[in-house]
Design brief:
- The protein is of the alpha/beta class.
- It folds into 2 domains: about 260 residues, Type I PLP-dependent aspartate aminotransferase-like (Major domain) (Aspartate Aminotransferase, domain 2, 3-Layer(aba) Sandwich); about 100 residues, Aspartate Aminotransferase, domain 1, CATH 3.90.1150.10.
- About 40% of the residues lie in helices and about 15% in strands.
- The protein is built from 14 helices and 13 strands.
- The strands form 4 sheets. A 7-stranded mixed β-sheet has the order 3-9-8-7-6-4-5, sandwiched between helices. A two-stranded antiparallel sheet has the order 1-10.
- β6, α8 and β7 form a beta-alpha-beta unit.
- It is globular.
Protein backbone atom coordinates (compact mmCIF):
# COMPACT_ATOMS: atom_id res chain seq x y z
CA UNK A 1 0.00 0.00 0.00
CA UNK A 2 1.37 3.38 -0.95
CA UNK A 3 0.50 6.32 1.28
CA UNK A 4 -0.55 9.50 -0.47
CA UNK A 5 0.96 12.33 1.55
CA UNK A 6 0.94 14.89 -1.25
CA UNK A 7 0.84 18.64 -0.71
CA UNK A 8 -2.94 18.66 -0.35
CA UNK A 9 -2.90 15.93 2.29
CA UNK A 10 -0.08 17.58 4.20
CA UNK A 11 -1.95 20.89 4.19
CA UNK A 12 -5.03 19.11 5.55
CA UNK A 13 -2.98 17.53 8.35
CA UNK A 14 -1.42 20.87 9.30
CA UNK A 15 -4.85 22.49 9.36
CA UNK A 16 -6.07 19.81 11.79
CA UNK A 17 -3.26 20.41 14.25
CA UNK A 18 -0.64 17.89 13.18
CA UNK A 19 2.94 19.06 12.74
CA UNK A 20 5.38 18.16 9.98
CA UNK A 21 7.11 16.02 12.57
CA UNK A 22 3.94 13.88 12.68
CA UNK A 23 4.01 13.14 8.94
CA UNK A 24 6.42 10.23 9.27
CA UNK A 25 4.30 8.45 11.83
CA UNK A 26 1.14 9.03 9.82
CA UNK A 27 2.82 7.58 6.73
CA UNK A 28 3.85 4.56 8.81
CA UNK A 29 0.27 3.95 9.90
CA UNK A 30 -0.87 4.04 6.28
CA UNK A 31 1.83 1.75 4.90
CA UNK A 32 3.24 -0.58 7.55
CA UNK A 33 0.21 -2.75 8.30
CA UNK A 34 0.86 -5.48 10.86
CA UNK A 35 4.46 -4.32 11.23
CA UNK A 36 3.31 -1.21 13.09
CA UNK A 37 5.02 -0.69 16.43
CA UNK A 38 1.73 -0.78 18.34
CA UNK A 39 1.27 -4.41 17.26
CA UNK A 40 4.51 -5.38 18.95
CA UNK A 41 4.34 -3.68 22.33
CA UNK A 42 5.38 -5.87 25.27
CA UNK A 43 2.12 -4.97 27.01
CA UNK A 44 0.30 -7.23 24.54
CA UNK A 45 2.08 -10.42 25.51
CA UNK A 46 -0.69 -12.62 24.19
CA UNK A 47 -0.70 -11.62 20.53
CA UNK A 48 -2.47 -13.76 17.99
CA UNK A 49 0.83 -14.55 16.32
CA UNK A 50 2.45 -17.36 18.32
CA UNK A 51 5.85 -18.53 17.18
CA UNK A 52 6.89 -22.19 17.41
CA UNK A 53 3.39 -23.37 18.27
CA UNK A 54 3.27 -27.18 18.54
CA UNK A 55 1.56 -28.79 15.55
CA UNK A 56 -1.07 -30.41 17.80
CA UNK A 57 -1.82 -27.21 19.71
CA UNK A 58 -5.28 -25.63 19.95
CA UNK A 59 -5.25 -22.03 18.66
CA UNK A 60 -8.32 -20.20 19.94
CA UNK A 61 -6.77 -16.79 20.51
CA UNK A 62 -7.41 -14.70 17.38
CA UNK A 63 -11.14 -14.95 16.58
CA UNK A 64 -10.29 -16.93 13.45
CA UNK A 65 -12.68 -19.34 11.75
CA UNK A 66 -11.08 -22.80 11.63
CA UNK A 67 -13.51 -23.87 8.89
CA UNK A 68 -11.59 -21.73 6.41
CA UNK A 69 -12.98 -20.68 3.01
CA UNK A 70 -16.05 -22.48 1.71
CA UNK A 71 -15.48 -24.98 -1.16
CA UNK A 72 -16.74 -22.51 -3.76
CA UNK A 73 -14.27 -19.89 -2.57
CA UNK A 74 -11.41 -22.39 -2.47
CA UNK A 75 -12.17 -23.45 -6.04
CA UNK A 76 -12.34 -19.84 -7.23
CA UNK A 77 -9.01 -19.06 -5.56
CA UNK A 78 -7.34 -22.12 -7.06
CA UNK A 79 -8.60 -21.31 -10.54
CA UNK A 80 -7.55 -17.66 -10.45
CA UNK A 81 -4.02 -18.54 -9.30
CA UNK A 82 -3.39 -20.13 -12.68
CA UNK A 83 -3.92 -16.70 -14.21
CA UNK A 84 -1.85 -14.94 -11.58
CA UNK A 85 0.37 -13.38 -14.23
CA UNK A 86 -2.47 -10.97 -15.01
CA UNK A 87 -3.47 -7.99 -12.88
CA UNK A 88 -7.22 -8.65 -13.13
CA UNK A 89 -8.22 -5.38 -11.44
CA UNK A 90 -11.78 -5.99 -12.58
CA UNK A 91 -12.21 -8.62 -9.86
CA UNK A 92 -12.26 -5.87 -7.26
CA UNK A 93 -15.16 -4.15 -9.03
CA UNK A 94 -16.98 -7.47 -9.38
CA UNK A 95 -16.71 -7.99 -5.63
CA UNK A 96 -17.88 -4.44 -4.89
CA UNK A 97 -20.88 -4.79 -7.19
CA UNK A 98 -21.79 -8.20 -5.75
CA UNK A 99 -21.49 -6.95 -2.17
CA UNK A 100 -23.56 -3.86 -2.94
CA UNK A 101 -26.27 -6.09 -4.34
CA UNK A 102 -26.31 -8.26 -1.21
CA UNK A 103 -26.46 -5.21 1.09
CA UNK A 104 -28.84 -3.19 -1.13
CA UNK A 105 -26.39 -0.30 -1.44
CA UNK A 106 -25.64 1.90 -4.43
CA UNK A 107 -22.70 0.83 -6.54
CA UNK A 108 -21.06 2.65 -9.42
CA UNK A 109 -17.87 2.15 -11.37
CA UNK A 110 -17.44 5.88 -10.79
CA UNK A 111 -15.97 6.11 -7.25
CA UNK A 112 -17.62 9.46 -6.53
CA UNK A 113 -21.02 7.77 -6.83
CA UNK A 114 -20.41 4.42 -5.10
CA UNK A 115 -21.34 3.53 -1.51
CA UNK A 116 -19.03 0.49 -1.38
CA UNK A 117 -15.23 0.56 -1.28
CA UNK A 118 -13.15 -2.63 -1.25
CA UNK A 119 -10.07 -2.99 0.94
CA UNK A 120 -7.64 -5.77 1.82
CA UNK A 121 -9.46 -6.60 5.06
CA UNK A 122 -10.90 -3.99 7.43
CA UNK A 123 -7.74 -2.84 9.23
CA UNK A 124 -6.71 -0.45 6.45
CA UNK A 125 -9.97 1.56 6.39
CA UNK A 126 -9.97 1.67 10.20
CA UNK A 127 -6.45 3.11 10.34
CA UNK A 128 -7.14 5.49 7.44
CA UNK A 129 -10.33 6.73 9.08
CA UNK A 130 -8.32 7.58 12.20
CA UNK A 131 -5.99 9.66 10.04
CA UNK A 132 -8.86 11.22 8.08
CA UNK A 133 -11.11 12.25 10.97
CA UNK A 134 -9.05 12.42 14.18
CA UNK A 135 -6.51 14.95 15.40
CA UNK A 136 -5.09 16.34 18.61
CA UNK A 137 -8.35 18.27 19.06
CA UNK A 138 -10.74 15.64 17.64
CA UNK A 139 -10.27 12.42 19.63
CA UNK A 140 -10.88 8.77 18.84
CA UNK A 141 -13.62 7.41 21.13
CA UNK A 142 -14.27 3.73 21.84
CA UNK A 143 -15.81 1.36 24.36
CA UNK A 144 -13.63 -0.32 26.96
CA UNK A 145 -12.86 -3.16 26.67
CA UNK A 146 -12.90 -2.95 22.90
CA UNK A 147 -10.83 -3.71 19.84
CA UNK A 148 -7.61 -1.76 20.24
CA UNK A 149 -6.26 -1.27 16.70
CA UNK A 150 -7.93 2.10 16.11
CA UNK A 151 -6.97 3.34 19.57
CA UNK A 152 -3.34 2.38 19.12
CA UNK A 153 -3.21 3.92 15.66
CA UNK A 154 -4.60 7.16 17.09
CA UNK A 155 -2.05 7.22 19.91
CA UNK A 156 0.75 6.44 17.48
CA UNK A 157 0.02 9.49 15.31
CA UNK A 158 -0.57 11.77 18.31
CA UNK A 159 -4.36 11.97 18.27
CA UNK A 160 -6.17 11.85 21.59
CA UNK A 161 -8.04 8.70 22.70
CA UNK A 162 -11.05 8.49 25.01
CA UNK A 163 -12.00 5.09 26.44
CA UNK A 164 -15.53 4.80 27.83
CA UNK A 165 -16.50 1.76 29.95
CA UNK A 166 -19.10 -0.57 28.51
CA UNK A 167 -22.47 -0.37 30.22
CA UNK A 168 -22.35 -2.61 33.29
CA UNK A 169 -24.60 -5.67 33.14
CA UNK A 170 -25.45 -5.48 29.45
CA UNK A 171 -21.86 -4.74 28.38
CA UNK A 172 -22.95 -2.77 25.32
CA UNK A 173 -21.63 0.63 24.26
CA UNK A 174 -22.85 3.46 26.46
CA UNK A 175 -23.37 5.91 23.61
CA UNK A 176 -24.58 8.76 25.82
CA UNK A 177 -21.49 8.42 28.00
CA UNK A 178 -19.31 8.32 24.88
CA UNK A 179 -20.78 11.59 23.64
CA UNK A 180 -20.52 13.21 27.06
CA UNK A 181 -16.88 12.14 27.39
CA UNK A 182 -15.89 13.60 24.03
CA UNK A 183 -18.32 16.17 22.66
CA UNK A 184 -15.68 17.17 20.11
CA UNK A 185 -14.84 13.67 18.89
CA UNK A 186 -13.50 13.08 15.41
CA UNK A 187 -14.43 9.41 15.30
CA UNK A 188 -16.78 7.37 17.49
CA UNK A 189 -15.89 3.69 17.07
CA UNK A 190 -18.45 1.00 17.85
CA UNK A 191 -17.65 -2.65 17.23
CA UNK A 192 -20.97 -4.48 16.94
CA UNK A 193 -20.96 -7.29 18.04
CA UNK A 194 -18.19 -6.05 20.27
CA UNK A 195 -14.72 -7.52 20.32
CA UNK A 196 -13.87 -8.93 22.88
CA UNK A 197 -17.22 -9.33 24.68
CA UNK A 198 -19.42 -10.44 21.77
CA UNK A 199 -22.21 -8.19 23.07
CA UNK A 200 -24.61 -6.10 20.99
CA UNK A 201 -25.28 -2.37 20.84
CA UNK A 202 -28.80 -1.67 19.65
CA UNK A 203 -29.63 0.02 16.38
CA UNK A 204 -31.59 2.61 18.37
CA UNK A 205 -28.54 3.55 20.44
CA UNK A 206 -26.32 3.91 17.39
CA UNK A 207 -29.00 5.95 15.66
CA UNK A 208 -29.21 8.21 18.74
CA UNK A 209 -25.46 8.80 18.65
CA UNK A 210 -25.59 9.64 14.96
CA UNK A 211 -28.41 12.11 15.58
CA UNK A 212 -26.74 13.82 18.55
CA UNK A 213 -23.03 13.74 17.73
CA UNK A 214 -21.15 16.97 17.00
CA UNK A 215 -21.08 18.34 13.49
CA UNK A 216 -18.16 16.96 11.53
CA UNK A 217 -17.62 13.83 13.61
CA UNK A 218 -18.12 10.36 12.18
CA UNK A 219 -19.65 7.24 13.70
CA UNK A 220 -17.76 4.14 12.57
CA UNK A 221 -19.54 0.82 13.12
CA UNK A 222 -17.30 -2.22 12.80
CA UNK A 223 -19.57 -5.09 11.73
CA UNK A 224 -16.82 -7.70 11.39
CA UNK A 225 -18.82 -10.24 13.42
CA UNK A 226 -22.35 -9.29 12.48
CA UNK A 227 -23.12 -12.39 10.39
CA UNK A 228 -22.29 -14.63 13.37
CA UNK A 229 -25.03 -13.08 15.51
CA UNK A 230 -28.68 -13.94 14.97
CA UNK A 231 -29.87 -10.76 16.70
CA UNK A 232 -27.45 -8.03 15.61
CA UNK A 233 -28.96 -5.30 13.41
CA UNK A 234 -26.81 -3.71 10.73
CA UNK A 235 -26.89 0.06 10.30
CA UNK A 236 -26.66 -0.01 6.51
CA UNK A 237 -29.97 1.88 6.50
CA UNK A 238 -28.14 4.87 7.99
CA UNK A 239 -25.66 4.75 5.13
CA UNK A 240 -28.55 4.66 2.66
CA UNK A 241 -29.89 7.79 4.38
CA UNK A 242 -26.53 9.53 3.81
CA UNK A 243 -25.76 9.86 7.53
CA UNK A 244 -22.24 10.47 8.88
CA UNK A 245 -21.66 6.73 9.25
CA UNK A 246 -18.91 4.44 8.00
CA UNK A 247 -19.44 0.67 8.27
CA UNK A 248 -16.58 -1.82 8.22
CA UNK A 249 -17.00 -5.36 6.95
CA UNK A 250 -14.53 -8.22 6.56
CA UNK A 251 -14.41 -11.71 5.11
CA UNK A 252 -12.03 -12.78 7.89
CA UNK A 253 -14.65 -14.12 10.30
CA UNK A 254 -17.70 -16.11 9.25
CA UNK A 255 -16.32 -16.51 5.72
CA UNK A 256 -13.05 -18.01 7.04
CA UNK A 257 -10.71 -15.88 4.93
CA UNK A 258 -8.58 -14.10 7.56
CA UNK A 259 -5.31 -14.79 5.75
CA UNK A 260 -6.66 -13.91 2.29
CA UNK A 261 -7.41 -10.25 3.08
CA UNK A 262 -10.75 -9.09 1.77
CA UNK A 263 -12.93 -6.43 3.34
CA UNK A 264 -14.98 -3.35 2.62
CA UNK A 265 -16.27 -0.03 3.89
CA UNK A 266 -19.81 1.25 3.35
CA UNK A 267 -20.53 4.98 3.45
CA UNK A 268 -21.72 7.79 1.28
CA UNK A 269 -19.17 8.56 -1.45
CA UNK A 270 -17.65 11.72 0.05
CA UNK A 271 -16.80 9.87 3.27
CA UNK A 272 -15.34 6.93 1.38
CA UNK A 273 -13.19 9.39 -0.56
CA UNK A 274 -11.79 10.78 2.70
CA UNK A 275 -10.99 7.29 3.95
CA UNK A 276 -9.63 5.75 0.75
CA UNK A 277 -7.79 8.90 -0.28
CA UNK A 278 -4.96 8.06 2.08
CA UNK A 279 -3.90 4.95 0.16
CA UNK A 280 -3.71 3.50 -3.31
CA UNK A 281 -3.09 -0.15 -3.96
CA UNK A 282 -4.46 -3.04 -6.04
CA UNK A 283 -6.29 -5.67 -4.02
CA UNK A 284 -5.15 -9.33 -3.69
CA UNK A 285 -7.04 -11.11 -6.45
CA UNK A 286 -7.22 -14.39 -4.51
CA UNK A 287 -9.13 -12.58 -1.78
CA UNK A 288 -11.37 -10.83 -4.29
CA UNK A 289 -12.56 -13.95 -6.10
CA UNK A 290 -12.84 -15.93 -2.87
CA UNK A 291 -15.02 -13.24 -1.32
CA UNK A 292 -17.25 -13.00 -4.40
CA UNK A 293 -17.75 -16.77 -4.47
CA UNK A 294 -18.56 -16.75 -0.75
CA UNK A 295 -21.30 -14.15 -1.23
CA UNK A 296 -22.92 -16.28 -3.91
CA UNK A 297 -23.27 -19.24 -1.52
CA UNK A 298 -26.65 -18.39 0.01
CA UNK A 299 -26.52 -21.13 2.65
CA UNK A 300 -23.03 -20.34 3.93
CA UNK A 301 -23.88 -17.71 6.56
CA UNK A 302 -26.87 -19.45 8.21
CA UNK A 303 -25.10 -22.82 8.24
CA UNK A 304 -21.92 -21.45 9.79
CA UNK A 305 -23.86 -19.26 12.22
CA UNK A 306 -25.58 -22.37 13.56
CA UNK A 307 -22.37 -24.39 13.77
CA UNK A 308 -20.55 -21.63 15.65
CA UNK A 309 -23.55 -20.90 17.85
CA UNK A 310 -24.03 -24.54 18.85
CA UNK A 311 -20.35 -24.93 19.82
CA UNK A 312 -20.40 -21.62 21.69
CA UNK A 313 -23.52 -22.53 23.66
CA UNK A 314 -22.07 -25.95 24.51
CA UNK A 315 -18.99 -24.18 25.88
CA UNK A 316 -21.20 -21.83 27.89
CA UNK A 317 -23.03 -24.82 29.38
CA UNK A 318 -19.65 -26.24 30.46
CA UNK A 319 -18.60 -22.94 32.06
CA UNK A 320 -21.95 -22.64 33.84
CA UNK A 321 -21.61 -26.17 35.22
CA UNK A 322 -18.07 -25.31 36.35
CA UNK A 323 -19.31 -22.13 38.09
CA UNK A 324 -17.17 -19.88 35.89
CA UNK A 325 -18.35 -16.32 35.29
CA UNK A 326 -18.56 -15.36 31.61
CA UNK A 327 -20.32 -12.79 29.45
CA UNK A 328 -22.95 -14.27 27.10
CA UNK A 329 -21.74 -13.58 23.59
CA UNK A 330 -23.32 -13.61 20.14
CA UNK A 331 -19.99 -13.76 18.39
CA UNK A 332 -17.19 -16.29 17.89
CA UNK A 333 -15.43 -15.11 21.05
CA UNK A 334 -16.32 -14.50 24.68
CA UNK A 335 -14.83 -13.19 27.91
CA UNK A 336 -14.50 -15.29 31.07
CA UNK A 337 -13.34 -14.44 34.58
CA UNK A 338 -10.36 -16.60 35.56
CA UNK A 339 -10.07 -14.88 38.97
CA UNK A 340 -6.34 -14.28 38.67
CA UNK A 341 -3.88 -12.67 36.29
CA UNK A 342 -5.13 -13.21 32.76
CA UNK A 343 -1.57 -13.21 31.51
CA UNK A 344 -0.58 -15.95 33.97
CA UNK A 345 -3.66 -17.96 32.99
CA UNK A 346 -2.69 -17.66 29.32
CA UNK A 347 0.80 -18.98 30.11
CA UNK A 348 -0.57 -21.95 32.07
CA UNK A 349 -3.01 -22.83 29.29
CA UNK A 350 -0.23 -22.57 26.71
CA UNK A 351 1.70 -25.13 28.76
CA UNK A 352 -1.25 -27.45 28.06
CA UNK A 353 -0.89 -26.58 24.36
CA UNK A 354 -4.11 -24.56 24.34
CA UNK A 355 -3.60 -20.94 23.26
CA UNK A 356 -6.39 -18.64 24.42
CA UNK A 357 -6.63 -14.89 23.94
CA UNK A 358 -5.45 -12.06 26.11
CA UNK A 359 -6.78 -9.96 28.96
CA UNK A 360 -7.59 -6.24 28.58
CA UNK A 361 -6.00 -3.72 30.99
CA UNK A 362 -9.42 -2.61 32.24
CA UNK A 363 -10.33 -6.25 33.02
CA UNK A 364 -7.00 -7.90 33.96
CA UNK A 365 -8.60 -11.10 35.28
CA UNK A 366 -10.88 -11.67 32.29
CA UNK A 367 -9.57 -13.58 29.26
CA UNK A 368 -10.93 -13.68 25.73
CA UNK A 369 -11.47 -17.10 24.18
CA UNK A 370 -12.27 -17.73 20.53
CA UNK A 371 -14.75 -20.44 19.57
CA UNK A 372 -12.96 -23.24 17.74
CA UNK A 373 -14.12 -26.60 16.43
CA UNK A 374 -15.86 -29.11 18.69
CA UNK A 375 -12.61 -31.04 18.98
CA UNK A 376 -10.67 -27.89 19.86
CA UNK A 377 -13.19 -26.82 22.49
CA UNK A 378 -13.14 -30.32 24.01
CA UNK A 379 -9.38 -29.91 24.48
CA UNK A 380 -9.98 -26.43 25.85
CA UNK A 381 -12.34 -27.85 28.49
CA UNK A 382 -9.85 -30.51 29.51
CA UNK A 383 -7.01 -28.01 29.85
CA UNK A 384 -9.24 -25.46 31.54
CA UNK A 385 -10.21 -27.84 34.35
CA UNK A 386 -6.54 -28.51 35.09
CA UNK A 387 -5.47 -24.88 35.00
CA UNK A 388 -8.52 -23.26 36.62
CA UNK A 389 -8.66 -25.69 39.52
CA UNK A 390 -4.93 -25.34 40.08
Amino acid sequence: MTAILNAERKADLLKRGFSRRDFGRIATVLTAGAALPFYNEPALAQLSMVRDMPPDAVKINANENPMGPCPEAADAIYNVIKNGGRYMYEQTDILAETLAGVEDLKFSYTPSESYVQIFAGSSAPLHQAVVAFCSKDRPFVKGDPGYEAGERAAKFIGANVVNVPLRKGTWDHDVKAMLAAAPNAGLFYICNPNNPTGTLTSHADIEWLVANKPTGSIVMVDEAYIQISKNAASVTDLVVKDKDVVILRTFSKIYGMAGLRAGAAFARPDLLAKVSGWSASPMPITGMVGATASLKNKNLVPERRKIMGDIREDTFAFLTATNVEFIPSESNCFMMNVKRSGRAFYTDMAAQKVYVGRAWPVWPEWVRVSVGTREEMAKFKEAFVKVYNA
